[in-house]
Design goal:
seven-stranded mixed beta sheet, about 30% strand, alpha/beta, five-stranded mixed beta sheet, binds S-adenosylmethionine
């Protein structure tokens, strides 16, 4: 537990943020004492709590956790310092501990990569909107499901977890990825006989002669380098979806480092999260699908989920 460097009572969040930013330039860990959030619970951030003539401003654990994330730190377990106060400790994340830095084309996301340590379904901010998307397309009623950039198959695994086993076995699952090691692992994980995996470049789907699908899922993949995003997306809708098919697209709006999923996509030429590219791509897909008579919803936070369900009548 780091030494307490500062005590905050009625200082503004602006003051605390400035202090934290400055102190983190010198130190990898910062610790400070504040009012125990349980005492002021139910209040909004900044509401006054008076204790023994001391004026405190309330902040919830959510606010302290948000601050840690914004500072690109992990928050350690808060410790009680006195009857009314606790210690908040932030530890800088190791920015180099991330798969984002690898240059290996096919195996950047392979089983030996740092990416393999990530289990997205265990992060509530990913799990909850993905579950909602699967339910909204009625995944159990689909027959053929295609996943592009399947990696080791986590997206299929959740489908297997939520459906009754017989219903799951009626699905025909097809997963494609150019990582040989990830696909070998996926083949071992899904050995029930209803899943096929290809080590293949998704720019060349034609040579696989896959036929059409009731549902296409692709998460964190279409915006990869070397993929013509718009072209591939239009091709998927026109050539690989049945007339009343559905599509789930997941757009990352986070970075993974030091064991944490940090909100906000990193944009080229910006030192902070800038979302023009994200909004542009998401909006392009939304507009395109609406023109093709799909009902489209956008949900999520660290991953933006675009869910399109065809409502074509002709
Ligand atoms: C960011 S990962 C996302 C994996 C998984 N969908 C997830 O969200 O955990 C992108 C995946 O797409 C694969 N990929 C990228 N470009 C590809 C291409 N041109 N052909 C096939 N797979 C590709 C990578 O190997 C990787 O597994």
């Amino acid at each position: 537990m780091g030494t307490i460097l500062k005590t905050f009572t009625s200082e503004s969040m602006n003051t605390i943020l400035a202090w934290a930013n400055e102190t983190l330039k010198e130190s990898d860990t910062i610790a400070f004492k504040v009012l125990n959030p349980d005492i002021g619970r139910g209040r909004y951030a900044g509401e006054i709590v008076m204790i023994s003539d001391i004026t405190y401003l309330h902040r919830s654990y959510k606010a302290w956790s948000d601050l840690g994330e914004l500072l690109v730190c992990r928050m350690l377990t808060p410790k009680a310092v006195s009857e009314h106060t606790i210690q908040i400790t932030y530890e800088k994340l190791d920015l180099n501990d991330s798969f984002h830095h690898s240059d290996d084309k096919e195996e950047k996301y392979g089983t030996e990569s740092r990416f393999a340590a990530i289990h997205k379904n265990e992060e509530p901010a990913f799990l909850s909107p993905y579950l909602r998307a699967l339910r909204s397309v009625k995944v159990g009623e689909k027959k053929r499901i295609l996943n592009l950039g399947i990696n080791t198959g986590d997206e299929f695994d959740l489908i297997r977890q939520i459906l009754p086993h017989d219903e799951y076995l009626n699905l025909e699952l097809v997963g494609i990825d150019h990582s040989q090691t990830a696909i070998s692992h996926a083949r071992e994980r899904f050995s029930e006989g209803n899943a096929t995996f290809y080590v293949h470049d998704i720019n060349d789907l034609a040579s696989l002669e896959l036929g059409k699908f009731d549902l296409i899922i692709t998460i964190g993949t279409l915006q990869s380098p070397g993929i013509d995003f718009k072209l591939l997306f239009m091709q998927l809708v026109q050539e690989y979806l049945i007339r009343d098919g559905a599509i789930i697209l997941g757009f990352p709006n986070c970075r993974w480092m030091g064991g944490e999923m940090i909100y906000g996509a990193k944009a080229p030429n910006y030192s902070y999260s800038e979302m023009t590219l994200l909004y542009k791509d998401v909006y392009y897909c939304k507009k395109y699908l609406q023109q093709k008579k799909f009902r489209v919803t956008l949900t999520g936070k660290n991953y933006i989920f675009l869910t399109g369900t065809s409502i074509r009548k002709d």
